[in-house]
Write a structure and sequence with these properties.
With 190 residues, the protein is an alpha+beta fold. The protein is 52% helix and 21% strand. It folds into two domains: 2-145, Jelly Rolls; 146-190, no CATH class.
Length: 190
């Protein structure tokens, strides 16, 4: 729990008072998930804002032939079907673990209580929403401004030690190419 506190303090760039941490941390739930566990299904409402202690998570739109992967989340980052979480509307995509994963989670209801009762809750909530928003914008801009090879290299630069845990078909989908095109990209850059 102290590691999570330290990560949050670094993220919000302020020391969290012990009283506020006691309130906030009392609402956190630590959960462990096996590989390929569905965290959010299409048609379900996201109940949690989560922080990834360890693991890799994939966001995708299920399709009959090939799923469309549009996001990966790595350790020390926030994860949520955030649009569903804040609107309380059903999700149009799925979220699953790609590796065994440990999450620290707070429910929608508990987060509203934390927002009302603490300053730190607002700071952490703001940081989480900003991080999720900026990641989304970077992804959209990447598709408008970069070639698939650049998107692959950016993903490889972001978390090279974790990339080996992601099946190539998901990486290909994420950068917007076929698995065969990804093979050609990988050959060119090695």
């Amino acid at each position: 729990m102290q590691v999570i506190r330290k990560v949050f303090e670094e993220a919000i760039k302020q020391k969290i008072r012990d009283e506020e941490w006691a309130i906030f941390s009392s609402k956190l739930i630590r959960e462990e998930f096996r590989k390929k566990h569905t965290l959010l299904s299409v048609g379900k409402i996201e109940q949690y804002l989560s922080f990834v202690e360890t693991g890799i998570i994939r966001y995708f739109i299920p399709k009959i032939e090939n799923d469309l992967t549009f996001n990966f989340v790595f350790e020390n980052n926030f994860t949520s079907g955030y649009d569903s979480f804040i609107t309380r509307n059903p999700s149009t995509y799925q979220i699953e673990t790609l590796t065994p994963t440990v999450l620290w989670r707070i429910s929608f209801t508990d987060l509203q209580t934390i927002y009302a009762d603490t300053e730190v809750g607002n700071a952490i909530g703001r940081k989480a929403s900003e991080e999720l928003y900026l990641k989304k914008v970077r992804r959209e801009l990447s598709f408008m401004n970069e070639r698939a090879e650049e998107r692959y290299l950016n993903l490889f630069t972001e978390q090279p030690h974790l990339l080996r845990h992601i099946p190539l078909k998901y990486i290909a989908s994420y950068i917007g190419v076929t698995p065969q095109a990804l093979s050609r990209i990988r050959k060119r850059i090695t």
